[in-house]
Amino acid sequence: GTEAEHALIATLPPTFRWGVATSAYQIEGAVAEGGRGRSIWDTYCRVPGMVDGGDHGDVACEHYHRMPEDVALMRELAVDTYRFSVAWPRVQPGGTGPANPEGLGFYDRLVDELLGSGITPWVTLYHWDLPQELEDAGGWPVRDTAHRFADYAMLVFDKLHDRVRAWTTLNEPWCTAMLGYHEGRQAPGRRHFGDAMRAVHHLLLGHGLAAQRMRAADPGIELGITLNMSTITPATDSPEDVDAARRGDGLGVRLYLDPLVKGSYPQDVVADLAARGAALPVQDGDLEVISTPLDLLGVNYYFSQQVSGVDESGSAVDAAGLPVGREVPTGRPVTAMGWEITPGGMTELLTRLHRDYGLPMYITENGAAFDDVADDDGFVDDADRTAYFAAHLAAVAAARQAGADLRGYFAWSLMDNFEWSYGYAKRFGIVRVDYETQRRTPKRSALWYRDTIRRVRDGHA
Ligand code: PNW
């Protein structure tokens, strides 16, 4: 990082939490062990053409069998908090009924291993692995799934809340709804906008039902939800571009945060949905449940976007008669995902979230895939990823200086893993995984992160 970035990062307080994040299906493997049921990702990965290289999570990083080694690695990297997700089909195969003790047992041991290593566990209850049986019954577009989620959440909560104090209900409901049910780019691979909007409401309802019960069972926990968000700016100040930015922000940010924090859906978004023949299936009392008070907001930030409301030929409607919303590259450098590197947009997003919603925030994910090259020892000298982290940590510190209440940061990801529909080809880890040998080797970015944590948090020069 630059000197200016390091100076900003050095303003992060000693109480700031420094972590790494992963999710169950992306790292665990062992999909047929310990009584685990099947999830929508097991199914989706078998549909030809859905995942690059025909990859799947059957083996992944074998974390299920290498968990103590992975916790030791985190300790070496000086992180104080680990954000991981619990696989619903391990805990409750089939998505209903009693807990599978072997499934819960894995997370029970993980929590003890972490605490024994001085690392605070942070649990995400849902990171996209819906039990297949629940999808067969209709999935998130169906109201019952919200109730099934709350029941599952309590099985995990009852087992772990004596030792786990920080809880995230859902990871990125936008991805579940929009990529899973509208664009079909993630499991379950459905393509229906109305279903996606029904999914949004039932995801939020499931979050609220779980949140109410968790709070009632133990008022002392730290409870939140994680959303992926970006700053969306209009490409020009034309009315079409400005409206495209409004719609993008509506569907990406306000559709979630308004009901969660203010207890109502944004009227302009509801009107946009109606114009597309879609609606949020709200019943009496739902918004009270959804707006159960949050202790924190988890923010996953990867990039910002510039959008236009007209296509290349200048038309504001597409072939289906829908308003055009199209990303227009700014020419900034991109990562291996093709995502523009936009740390300034992160400061903007965080200050705006602070102003509009006022919640304490954690960056629950931030990171980048690059085309890593390992040397003979497996070492990756990833100056690009290191620069990405430095710029974004400085952006977080800048938002904090501007008044936003930012309490911690999790690098995505602890290690290379199964990057969903991109398979293993896209590497987000700060630790390299050799998928032939399962050897883990910290990259230069991991060493930089470790040294930064020691300098800023522990005050070592
Ligand atoms: C997040 N988008 O997914 C997930 O939480 C992680 O599991 C994933 O590995 C990571 O980011 C990197 O992709 C996203 O299209 C997927 O805006 C897609 C988007 C954002 C986040």
Number of beta strands: 13
Structural class designation: alpha/beta
Q: Kindly report how far apart the N and C termini lie.
A: 16 Å
Number of helices: 16
Q: Could you give the order of strands across the largest sheet? A: 1-2-3-4-5-7-10-11
Order of helices and strands: HEHHHEHHEHHEHHEEHHHEEEHEHEEEH
Overall 3D geometry? globular
Question: Can you list the ligands bound to this structure?
Answer: 4-nitrophenyl beta-D-glucopyranoside
Percent in strands: 5-15%
Could you name the ranges where pLDDT drops below 50 across 5 or more consecutive residues? none
Share of helix, binned:
40-55%
Sheet with the most strands, sense and barrel status: 8 strands, parallel, barrel
Rg calc: 21 Å
In round numbers, the mean pLDDT is 98
